[in-house]
Design goal:
3 domains, OB fold (Dihydrolipoamide Acetyltransferase, E2P), 9 helices, 420 residues, seven-stranded mixed β-sheet, alpha/beta
């Protein structure tokens, strides 16, 4: 059913929110203040006509916008866009009943994304390779993507070549491609076992496209050069499928407040350390204890540390912090703790920190909702939330990163009275 709607605001998923004849309607690609005609089905709306456009509407730069699901908001002018994305963090904190000043949004798109996961599905006699269609399971077949970094320029060409080579497997593939200083690093997911004859074709493909490495769910197929990236003074050889921040600019934007806040601290615990995004930078100014469950990531961190001149000591510990967080007694040696968990957040670790006396905590998050939950735990445990920095790594999407500073007020010791 088509309805004429007035969009009241832009929601946290980048959808216009309006009130239809039967209640709230969410309309992707509509902007706040617009009068639109939408095809409404329950609470979902499909944008048809923009009757009165928002004064903040601009022309999107990608021809696939509104079809490809990779970007939710490209038609909003930069100023209102930054306020909308900052507002996602503000709303999450308000929902947790926390009062904190949220700084202006930092643009961390830089030159573009250095990693992406392309989906490949057989389609008739061909193969579709690209990103998922917005709110559907169809693949939008792409040959280019303007939000990728220049060094990812031929990544889609590589993804197409791999998908066609493995088409006979008749399996849905996820092709994770990361740009490194050594070239493109590829890790396949969903292929299952690849027989030797087909592996030879994949090896030949790596030669043809000058790839650094191709792995199948972490298992090596072709290694021509170790894929490496810089992290501070160190050069890290990342494991197959290893996690990196999507843009180099975001990695630097997230690290800068952490380094500034911990300057002068002797020992720092880096929890959920990964391959060393923070630990390897922190080691230029202090001793670091890095804790991570992924053994390959820890091995990469340790190898980079050993090979780098000018860093202080880094110790490592393999540990599942969701099940076994560092407890108050274990946290005593540290002047500061940095934690950067997955989207699920670090509820158990936040509770352990709240029960301890670490003077300074730096929380890094990719999920405002779980960040706000963990922040509430710390604040209720006596910490003061001093600084909240929103970082826009996944530009044009609803995702936003956060770096926050928590400080435990010093306890003043009462002078003992002398009894006369």
């Amino acid at each position: 059913m088509h309805q004429r709607l007035t969009v009241e605001k832009l929601g946290h998923r980048g959808e216009g929110i309006a009130r239809g004849s039967a209640g709230v309607v969410y309309v992707p690609y509509a902007l706040s203040g617009e009068t639109i005609v939408a095809e409404v089905d329950g609470e979902r709306g499909r944008l048809g006509e923009i009757v009165v456009p928002s004064p903040d509407r601009i022309a999107p730069f990608c021809p696939h916008y509104t079809v490809c699901g990779g970007c939710a908001v490209q038609a909003l002018a930069p100023g209102p866009y930054a306020e909308w994305k900052r507002g996602i963090v503000v709303a999450a904190l308000r929902g947790a009943r926390l009062e904190a000043e949220v700084e202006p949004l930092q643009d961390a798109h830089g030159v573009g994304r250095r990693r992406a996961t392309f989906h490949a599905r057989n389609r008739g006699r061909g193969v579709a390779v690209g990103f998922m269609q917005a709110r559907a399971h169809e693949i939008i077949d792409l040959d280019e993507c303007p939000i990728l970094a220049p060094e990812m320029g031929h990544a889609l060409e590589v993804a197409h070549a791999i998908a066609h080579t493995l088409r006979g497997l008749e399996k849905p593939l996820d092709i994770n491609i990361t740009a490194t200083l050594s070239g493109l690093d590829v890790d396949l997911r969903g292929a299952g076992k690849i027989e030797d004859g087909l592996k030879k074709k994949v090896v030949a493909l790596a030669e043809t496209h000058d790839l650094a490495r191709i792995a199948n769910h972490g298992d090596m197929i072709a290694l021509r050069r170790l894929p490496v990236v810089k992290m501070g003074l160190a050069t890290v050889a990342i494991p197959p499928g290893g996690f990196l921040q999507a843009t180099l600019s975001a990695e630097e934007c997230l690290a800068a407040p952490v380094l500034a806040a911990t300057k002068g601290v002797a020992r720092v615990a880096d929890l959920f350390s990964g391959v060393g995004t923070f630990a390897l930078r922190l080691a230029a100014q202090c001793e670091v204890h890095a804790v991570e469950f992924d053994a390959a990531a820890l091995n990469a961190l340790s190898a980079a540390h050993r090979a780098t001149v000018g860093l202080r000591g880094i110790t490592t510990e393999r540990r599942n912090l969701f099940e076994r967080p560092l407890l108050a007694d274990e946290l005593k040696p540290y002047g500061a703790v940095v934690f950067d968990p997955p989207r699920a957040g670090a509820e158990a670790q936040a509770k352990a920190l709240a029960a301890g006396l670490v003077p300074l905590v730096l929380a890094v998050s990719c999920n405002p909702v779980t960040f706000a939950r963990d922040a509430k735990i710390l604040v209720d445990g006596g910490y003061k939330l001093e600084r909240v920095v929103p970082v826009d790594q996944f530009k044009y999407s609803p995702h936003v990163e956060i770096v926050a500073t928590f400080r435990r007020p010093a306890v003043k010791k009462k002078k003992a009275r002398l009894l006369g």
